[in-house]
Amino acid sequence: MNDYIISALEEMEQRVRSAQPLSFSGLNPEETLLVSVDMNNGFAKQGALFSERVKALIPKTAALAAACEEHGVVLVAVSDHHNEQSIELNGGYPPHCLEGTDEPSLVSELQAFFPTVIEKNSTNAFYKMSTKELLSDYKNFIITGCCTDICIFQLACALKTYFNEQNDLRDIIVPVSLVDTYDSPQHPAQMMNTVFLCSMMDNGIRVVSDILY
């Protein structure tokens, strides 16, 4: 069984490594939305769910945001915003991104690029993004941030299945270089990234190695 699992993971890693970059030239800026997920102080700077891996995404995210701004792409950020009564905190997650603290705020490096910040009280940002304007105005959704296996996976799959239900072809794009997850003995980041990126591929999401601009 262990050999089977190791072999399967190696095949999945190769599949992720084979992802190709996506050039801005292949996208219509007016039909494209960049969504940055949970690049806030609570995940990228401090707190119970802080991760150095997420912190490392800050300069890459800022560079992509600047390029999107230059090309006329609309940018939206979503960020965890909880209170002490948030049901999510009754499960496996420790208190994080609590109102009245600095944790729900976007990291300072990104604030100028994202004038619109949507607060969410669950891991799935879709339920706070599912407004007519956001869903009808764009054909391409670029999703970046953290965590690959939780908030990124849930948002990407929710968007894809929402449009699939209506036979509405939209491009949900996840760049490998611009998403990551936390690392712990019970949650090996590289394995979680690999498994969930492959699952997104299986669900029709366009997983690319990077965005070229």
Automatic annotation (TrEMBL):
All copies of the Isochorismatase-like domain together span 32-159
Kindly give the Gene3D superfamilies that the UniProt entry links to this protein: Isochorismatase-like
Q: Which InterPro entries does the protein's record reference? A: Isochorismatase-like_dom, Isochorismatase-like_sf, NIC1
Single GO MF descriptor: nicotinamidase activity
Q: Which SUPFAM superfamilies does this chain map to?
A: Isochorismatase-like hydrolases
Q: Name one GO biological process term.
A: pyridine nucleotide salvage
Q: What is this protein called?
A: Nicotinamidase-related amidase
Native species: Acetanaerobacterium elongatum
**Which taxonomic lineage does the organism of this UniProt entry have?**
Bacteria, Bacillati, Bacillota, Clostridia, Eubacteriales
